[in-house]
Amino acid sequence: MDLQADYERFLTEEKGASANTVSSYMRDVHQYFRWLDSEGLAAQKATQADVDRYSKYLTSLGKSVATVTRSLASLKSFYGHLQSNQMVSSNPAKGLTLEKVERKLPQILTSKEVELFLEQPDPRDAKGCRDKAMLELLYATGIRVSELINLNLDNLNLSAGFLRCVNAKRERIIPLYPTAVKALGDYIQNVRPQMIERPDERSLFVNMNGSRMSRQGFWKLIKHYQDQAGIQKDITPHTLRHSFAAHLLENGADLRSLQEMLGHADISSTQVYTMVVNQKLKDVYNKAHPRT
After folding, report:
1. 81 in the Ramachandran plot: left (φ > 0), alpha (ψ -120 to 50) or beta?
2. Whole-number Cα distances in Å, 191 to 148, 155, 201
């Protein structure tokens, strides 16, 4: 049996992992198998000492603690799959103590920077109208860029003012603020019909050729408006997601509601934004308090 192919099938078909997750896990597993081959070892015969030796090998290559930690987590998942299918008696990656990785706080934009950024697209032309709708939707909902470009027209309910976001694991309903509703309405009514290549096109956002917007195309769009706005921070599609979350918390949103809107399976992923808000308060305190 091809263990790597079987594990990839498990991730995709049984676990329902996203394409990005599958790609990340399989990259780590492929690298591990190349090392096993160079050592003359078989994956099913590897011991905890072997996996520990592999982690030290990664470190010797100059890999960061975060990269080594992620690789070991991938191997723990891989061997967990083998164990559950009785292909190994124990998980050699399970007992390893992983080094604690210092969690970097996500970078966010201030409210004024978000406002400046969202003002950059010119809604008077077709491209600007589409871009305005995309950016407003991203900041209104905090969805991931992969979710944004995979949206279809029927995911929106503008009259009710919400977005239905569906991925492999769950469906969530996210409200839209009035400015986003207007920007989306203008795009859908006045621009999208002229941009689509086929009348039966389902994609909500399309490129200038009339087909679904790509991740790379949207990334370039973000960078273009960052330069145009003259904002020095490095803005990525995820920056708007982070800013959405931090700004909601600052204004009184509770963690559970935010977790639901972001689509986090574990609330610990959402709690990082509390740290962002707390750090911001600390910075304000240190700048303003007369005794500091």
Report:
1. alpha
2. 18, 18, 14
Rounded Cα–Cα distance for residues 36 and 51 (Å): 10
Cα radius of gyration rounded to whole Å, the chain: 23
Q: What pTM does this model have?
A: 0.64
The predicted structure's pLDDT at residue 78: 94
In the numeric block, the tokens 């290559």 are attached to 61
The C-alpha torsion from 56 through 60 and 63 to 67, rounded to 10°, is: -10
Q: Cα separation of 152 and 94, whole Å?
A: 41
Give me the pLDDT at residue 60, please.
86
- Domains located in the chain, CATH noted: 3-84 (1.10.150.130), 111-287 (1.10.443.10)
Give the DSSP per-residue string, 110-151. -HHHHHHHHT-S-TTSHHHHHHHHHHHHHHHH---HHHHHT-
Q: In the Cβ-directed half-sphere of 39, how many Cα atoms lie within 13 Å?
A: 17
